[in-house]
Amino acid sequence: MQKQGMFFSVLLLIVLVLGFLIYFKTDSRNNSRTGKGSENPVQVQVSGKIDFKTHDAGIKLVKSLNKKAFVFFHADWCKYCKDMEKGAFLNAQVIKYLNDNFISIEVDTDVEEETSSKYKIKGLPQLYFLEEDGSPIRYRPGFVDTEELFQLLKYINTDSYKKMAFRDFVNQN
């Protein structure tokens, strides 16, 4: 009888310890979105968020406000899309620059298949930049880190793409 009581006490202790560990592991993952408890300086810089619009609403704003568009094509299953959302898209400098200078549009390729087809999206993530009239400027396929994204935003916003290659722009800055 005493061995059975001891067995259940040890079992209860193991369950409690595992529950405690699972809770704190999950909690630390959830806090990484807000930057709490993170060692990554990009995540610590969180200040607001990118003001993403749907495609149709965003295009109307682009034309009515005469602003360029930044379009982010992504899907829930895309690891590199998630990496950009947790990295470059949490950088305060990127957030401010996008919100001040562009109409940001977000397109989930699994949900908005017709829009994705119109832009001929083949891989994810993919970034598109559009003129004030909605016509395409440039696109950039694949993962983009914070520094490259910020340089791309400046390159497009300053109309430097009309005068020089992106590489030359980066070398000048």
Write the layout of secondary structure elements.
Layout: H1 2-31, H2 41-44, E1 52-53, H3 55-65, E2 68-74, H4 79-86, H5 92-101, E3 102-108, H6 113-118, E4 126-130, E5 136-141, H7 146-157, H8 166-172
Helix pairs in contact: 5-7
How would you concisely characterize the structure shown here?
By secondary structure, this protein is an alpha/beta fold. The chain has helices at 2-31, 41-44, 55-65, 79-86, 92-101, 113-118, 146-157, 166-172; strands at 52-53, 68-74, 102-108, 126-130, 136-141.
Structure characterization notes:
With 173 residues, the protein is α/β, with parallel strands linked by helices. Helix content is 51%, strand content 16%. Strands 1-3-2-4-5 form a five-stranded mixed β-sheet. Helix 5 runs parallel beside helix 7. It is elongated.
